[in-house]
């Protein structure tokens, strides 16, 4: 059994291997009459696109998205939207040396254990290339959510170097190659990653996604909680090893009175004095910003030899010579944003219904 | 839309409110011919049962489980298993003072925002009492998995007091009231929690669940990954704010060569030199132990007044006088084990099929 | 794998065996704030209840439904509604003779082939007793749909004796023991069924369900079509062998111009000159009445010996001595109505959303 | 909400409009290591392909299928299989006259009622062109089922002209343009359809699908019954108005002893003296052949003017000038076969599991 779909009412099915002819997705459940063109999806793909700086893989894919169905005269029709990106820059020969051996930390061996066969070229189905389709689907999800909901992501930690949250600037995020909200941290990260890259190594990172303007009431007890669906979505991104919401793991160290978010009414509007909860109580959004962080492990594809075995079980050292990201966490930022957008769009449709209720914004 | 089911082939649906006549669940998809009696479920419920020490709520529920269907002459028949626990010790009057006001950090206000109505008695549907049914379902899941898979949990941190992992003993876990694997930490935690309890406060905790003997191949790319399903499952437990697998958030600080798990063959058996991955690669189990940790926030129900509002929006101070756990994380240990068992049973059935393939153990 | 749930947003899970301690269901996804008491469900159960005439099984079950969750102070809360009916009149000894042999036409042998075990008492899980829970769930579905949708069923054929449709009277349906809309047919059917009953035989029937007031737009292409979901629902009822919508099988004999339903506007309202389509085009409701018919085979449980085998494979003659219906189709009428109600409620919630949009009627 | 997927473990998602750039599907859950090439799918598509005789639409589409993912070195990998067929022969101008008016009996008006927008070219999403992808998916399903299961379909009735079942020949089915199993009926149908075609009219039909070699045990009570899933699948095919299994509607006229299928053991093998049940008891396959019939209404697209309205509500006469089938039931035969194959493959995977258990045939 394979499981290449997620979502209930806004449902995304992705397909494609890293070095096949194309990758794609089907977005099912998008409401009708939403203006949609390829140009409205492309900018989000460009943010994730590789080959844009020396800190991301040099595989240079234009990642041009095509809409094959579900849109008529520039508007969605309520029927499934098929999106396709052709793979153009496949240098499969790079991977010939790993056809018969397992890269430690990679899914190679797991796919062989499960299926007894794998498309080894570039990681095949397990390649992070699949996340391009998440970003494309996320672009559609954002259109469903409308302008009053903003979903933004940032890189808040590379290795043990964390940003200073007092210097947080969303404008800064757009200006640097790291999606870093702390301008003073940027040169430090540049030096640090340069060093790691030159050593043929890689490093982990932490990403934070913030959704603002989310209306109260999204999420459904008990097994459709908004936070548990977000956790599943983020953990499904390649290389993610942990997810936390609001105070997250720090909540373990707090007392009840420290972690409470006192409630008051301000100018006729429900308000909270703090947001330890990260915008979700009992699995349901409260109207506060939703804060999620996830940890990405260092890329397993490194130039430093790793002890491993070949498919016969013989010991061998594996060096991954392909084009890879020294910090795969950087490109995970737009992916995390897209997953948040998809989950929110799904819960929004579940909460409000789709037809007749759809408006240009979530708040009317 | 409510979502009170989880799992695909092994599917659990829970129902019931804290102070209604009963709580229950339907376990659908259990293979036939598995010996099952109420006595095989009860011990797991007893581990979660409240009223057993001064560190858990004094609500004393016998939590006697009844099997209402799906079992014939002591064996499962393949039809849905209905389990029911009557609520006997409901002291609803304790909650009369919170009928009209919202406890900060609780789901009260979220349910009202979503549904415009809530059963306020003891938290109603959002009460952790629901987790009793997860434990009951988990007991059945364990029977599906068989003896060669062990799923064990432990409390590894209360507040900022972490156990010493060098002193880890599974035997010790069974001996103390904290599920603590570090015997020397137990008296410290006792003093610490006594102090917190006397202050009418509460404290967070971290739980670790370890599954050993899990065969390789469980989990399905891309949106049925074993780790993302585990993350969703753990995050769905009341008060959980973070989930991590293997190195988890620490992976962000590691280099590729530090985080790699070298592969070798030992005595004809696939082996790994380390387990930073936590037993899962590409969303698929590798045969290594699966290590998961989750953080539980401090109980929101405390005796220290919290600023809040009533249902009219007027400011009020809320004190929760009901019977509550100073550290709700303690009782989350058997719940986390149960969720792990349910997720593994579901993926095991997905992987191997159910009929004809079911054996007393997963490894034959 | 068992599959004891149906519906997407309005989701019903049933459990229980004919001669177990109880049967029940969980209704998940019912919108909040709908007035609901046991007294609002009971009348529908009474219509299906056995033991009411000599033409239905003499098993006399009071079929008292209990609500165990999801309702607070007389209103639904949006959480799962657990319903339970205790089995009180189990005469299991009636079935002792079929414990080791297979009744031809019954599910006995199929369950054994699939599961290798079966609760043989009264058919166990395969008993039509399960349909009581469908009726109970249907009663809730009706409350979601509101007063402007009417769902009514009738028996239109027993054996080869069809009613005269020109004499159709819904009032008549309520007056006789057959749910027969043709008063002149009633005495004929009485004589006919008396004869069959005395011979220890049974006979098939055709049921028609009509839903009026259904708004346009329910149903979703391509695999969530309203008619295909209705077909699945009706075919899931015990003993049903065929389902048709609108003209049904007769459509095969018609020409395009005969089968077309011309469209016009009458008094500002969309209208159709005929309803060959049965109210559904392209899987989507058009606002016309939905007409569905399904055929029920004769009860397999008869007093006339049938050649069969025992569980060892030895030839044996089977006579079913239990209490059975000579025409099980009669009691299928309220079940068919209930399935229609459940499917419509599910599609209605899918179409309009649940929260904020719920009204006392579907048409505002 | 749109619902463009069906199946649980073998899951097919289709997309595409009649006159968009392409149509396609994603087949998720196909087991690994099955030999698969485009050439193994194409012959089935050719059977359904239009433009092959004067009795089917003259739209001449080569319907060349491309595999875009999920296959590596000629074998399935367990990852999703993306299939695509480019639309090449779109004569959209044919449909310009129906852009603003509703064809009676067509889905046009239903889509507008539901979505407020529709791709009117050739029926858009509601076109029977979508069924090409069902046939493609069915070809893969057949590979999963293996050689010992045969799934064959035939046209058994056009208008009121039924075949003589005594002359049934599967060989004959392959020889004529009607999939007719009764050679003597072929010239009659030719004359009849010629006459209807010349009148610019259309006619309905009945299709029968027979699956032989299906192992016992497929299908799951209560809401995953094999027959109810088949009913849903067949009813989802364009223009289908009725589905019946085994005796079907005729069962209503039979007595219990007439409809029973006596059981015996023949040469150590479970056998039945008859097959009124159509191979399914209690929703579970018994090993007997599965017989299903479905009725297809006459094509709504005819040259005879039909009273209708335009999108402003003004009265108008509609003539459909596009290229259409006088008897759309003919091309429904391979579609019905494909749906049967998909449903059986899904239930087979549910029943036996996918990995490790997959064999070249279902019977080992």
Automatic annotation (TrEMBL), chains A, B, C, D:
UniProt binding sites for FMN: 125-127, 238-239, 282, 297-301, 323
Domain of life, source organism: Bacteria
Record InterPro entries: Chorismate_synth, Chorismate_synth_AroC_sf, Chorismate_synthase_CS
Keyword Repeat on entry: no
Entry cofactors: FMNH2
Keywords: Amino-acid biosynthesis, Aromatic amino acid biosynthesis, FAD, Flavoprotein, FMN, Lyase, NADP
Binding-site residues, NADP(+): 48, 54
Gene3D superfamilies noted in UniProt: Chorismate synthase AroC
Keyword Glycoprotein on entry: no
Quaternary state and interactors: Homotetramer.
HAMAP family listed in its UniProt record: Chorismate_synth (MF_00300)
Name the record gives this protein: Chorismate synthase
Gene name for this UniProt entry: aroC
